[in-house]
Design a protein that fits this description.
Layout (H helix, E strand, L loop, with lengths): L5 E10 L2 E7 L8 E2 L2 E3 L6 H13 L2 E16 L5 E16 L8 E8 H6 L8 H11 L1
Parallel strand pairs: 1-6
Antiparallel strand pairs: 1-2, 1-4, 2-3, 2-7, 5-6
C-alpha cells in the first residue's frame, strides 16, 4: 500500500494585536493551543479549507488572503518508523466577524495578545510562534 502525506490547512487570524488560537481536543497535540485548521477535503482548495475549518472550530468568519508557509509534521513511533505525515499549510486570513466559540475539534477558542504568544508561556503546538511571525511580516 502506497502511503502519502495528508494535507491540512491552518487559518492564521490576527486582529487588533491579538491572534486567534484553539485548544486541540484530539491528537496530534491534544490539549495544546494552535491555529484553527484541519484536513483539506477532496475538491477543496487549501484556502477554502482554512476558511471552513476556522468557522467550524471557532464560529469566526475571515477571508483567506494568501499562503504563509508549509510545515511538515512527521510523527515517529518508538521504532523510528513514520506513524503519520501531514503537510500543514498556513493561510493568512482577514478577520470579518464573530466571537470565538469552541466547536468541532476544539476544546476552547480565544484571542491572545501577540506578545503573550511571543513570550511562549502558553502550551502550544510546534511552530505556532514562527508561523505567527511570518503572518505579522506579511501584513
Amino acid at each position: 500500500m502506497e502511503k502519502s502525506p495528508k494535507i491540512g490547512a491552518l487559518a492564521v487570524v490576527v486582529h487588533d494585536a491579538k491572534v486567534l488560537l484553539v485548544q486541540r481536543s484530539k491528537q496530534p497535540d491534544a490539549g495544546l493551543w494552535g491555529f484553527p485548521g484541519g484536513h483539506v477535503e477532496w475538491g477543496e482548495t487549501v484556502m477554502q479549507a482554512a476558511q471552513r475549518e476556522l468557522h467550524e472550530e471557532t464560529s469566526v468568519i475571515a477571508e483567506p488572503l494568501h499562503y504563509l508557509d508549509n510545515l511538515d509534521l512527521l510523527r515517529h513511533g518508538e521504532d523510528g518508523a513514520v506513524q503519520s505525515h501531514y503537510l500543514l499549510v498556513g493561510v493568512a486570513c482577514h478577520y470579518q466577524s464573530g466571537s470565538p466559540l469552541a466547536g468541532d475539534d476544539a476544546l476552547d477558542a480565544r484571542w491572545f495578545p501577540v506578545e503573550q504568544i511571543r513570550q511562549g508561556d502558553l502550551p502550544m503546538s510546534n511552530r505556532v510562534t514562527d508561523l505567527l511571525e511570518t503572518a505579522l511580516r506579511s501584513c
